[in-house]
Request: fold
Amino acid sequence: MSSKSRLVILEKKVIDKKLNRMACQILECHTKNLNIQFVGLNERGFQLAKLLTKKIAKLDSSKQVNLFQGHSETEFSIEQMNKLNAKSPIILVDDVLNTGRSIFHLLSILTEIKPAQLEICVLAVRHHKRFPIHANYVGLTIATTLQEHIYFDITKPELYLE
Reply:
């Protein structure tokens, strides 16, 4: 597909509903936790994590949410990783779970601090995993061919297939 033949899978309004649902699911799973930490992967995952933390703070003001940014494009790292609390849940957030490679490598970095709980939250899951990664919170599961790509456009926001 050329860039002119984008197929919009999720528009802003639907993405907002899915993020609301995922925020509610996260809160339901963490009723006893006062602090929840989010690590957004690269720019798009970080922007989604920001949206999720705002929704969680709005839904439950008693929760403390901390936001960190993870990187996987040049080297695998997490900014201010020394501030992550191993006793509080850590949720990795990404836009699309494709092969699972980036999340796998960030999980391996996080094992250094021996976290009590690690979870994964993604807006969309494709069925082309090469690494054994399972997302705990998913907005949409979609079957695609290897030649098709799913992109999250944070400026609109919308999810589209190309």
In short: The chain has one domain: 3-161. The mean pLDDT is 87. The helical segments are 12-29, 42-59, 101-110. The two ends are 5 Å apart (CA to CA).
